[in-house]
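Q: I'm building a small set of examples for a reading group on sequence design. Run inverse folding on the following structure and report the sequence directly after it, with nothing in between.
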């Protein structure tokens, strides 16, 4: 199993929790790879995570890859950061047929192994994702911004949240999903950035996951001790 997440300094605490939740939910004897896309993460994060994984005897292979923003793209940043678009470049970093992308504010509460095994039986969807909450209507999410993109086919379609995606990398490579979604984001200047662009590009080509997989942490006090690989405190931020 391969997992991908991305972030910059403000979400470092979330990456700690996310990696910890992967460790906690993996089946016994399972191995996994976690790729973290570094869009400006603090220097303390990598050595602390690697040390904690080694102390636990975890069978997770962790690697960090730098995110280089393409200079010729005009897609709008999200709250000043371009890290939200990192997931669109997943085929640059992952070679396996499937990868579970998770935002840095998400943690796993159940073993992800069934997601991978079920998907391998039918690799026709481009992505498996959770319907957006509270509004999962494509027509309202996209149509409110670009009405001309809505037709009879899309009027009743659903809209997914891009924070949890089991991605069919073979499909993405063959159909240039990342590149085309980035171009759509630049063209339309969507308010939900890559999420809107992916929904437009993958309209009718995704399969729904149960909402339980998009379990988001909005504040640090929500963190369960089981999700933490080490005690995170203000000293980490001061050292970064």
């Amino acid at each position: 199993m391969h997992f991908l997440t991305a972030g910059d300094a403000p979400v470092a605490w979330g990456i700690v929790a996310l990696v910890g939740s992967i460790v906690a939910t993996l089946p016994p004897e399972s191995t996994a790879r976690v790729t973290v896309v570094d869009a400006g993460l603090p220097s303390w994060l990598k050595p602390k995570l690697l040390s904690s994984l080694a102390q636990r005897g975890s069978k997770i292979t962790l690697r960090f890859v730098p995110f280089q923003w393409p200079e010729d793209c005009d897609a709008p940043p999200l709250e000043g950061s371009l890290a939200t678009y990192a997931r669109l470049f997943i085929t640059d970093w992952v070679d396996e047929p499937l990868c579970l992308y998770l935002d840095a504010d998400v943690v796993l509460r159940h073993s992800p192994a069934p997601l991978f095994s079920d998907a391998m039986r039918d690799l026709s969807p481009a992505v498996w994702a959770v319907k957006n909450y509270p509004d999962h209507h494509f027509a309202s999410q996209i149509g409110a911004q670009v009405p001309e993109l809505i037709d009879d086919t899309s009027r009743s379609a659903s809209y997914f949240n891009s924070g949890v995606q089991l991605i069919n990398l073979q499909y993405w490579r063959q159909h240039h999903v990342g590149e085309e979604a980035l171009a759509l984001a630049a063209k339309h200047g969507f308010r939900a950035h890559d999420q809107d662009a992916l929904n437009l590009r993958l309209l009718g080509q995704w399969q729904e996951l149960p909402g339980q997989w998009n379990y988001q942490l909005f504040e640090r006090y929500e963190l369960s001790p089981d999700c933490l690989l080490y005690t995170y405190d203000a000293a980490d931020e001061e050292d970064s």
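The beta strands are 2-7, 32-38, 60-66, 98-102, 127-131, 160-168, 206-209.
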